Amino acid sequence: MIPHRLKIVNSLSNGGLCTCDLLTHFTFSQPTLSYNMKVLQLTGIVLFTVTGGYDSCSNLVLEVSIDA
Q1: What pTM was estimated for this model as a whole?
Q2: Phi/psi at 47 (nearest 5 deg)?
Q3: Are 44 and 68 in contact (CB under 8 A)?
Q4: Of 13, 23, 39, 67, which one's alpha carbon is 20 to 30 angstroms from that of 33?
């Protein structure tokens, strides 16, 4: 799982992405992305910002925390 997290952080290092856009960069499934994003969030490495409604994954923006 660690290589997945490194790839996620690397992908987010250039700015925030919605989960749909982020998932297109990988060959693993959406549940795998969600699990790894939760771990990164709990450790304070990734921040979630929700803009708009919760129904569309395009409204979920992910950014790398530079304070962590």
Answers
A1: 0.71
A2: -110, 140
A3: yes
A4: 67
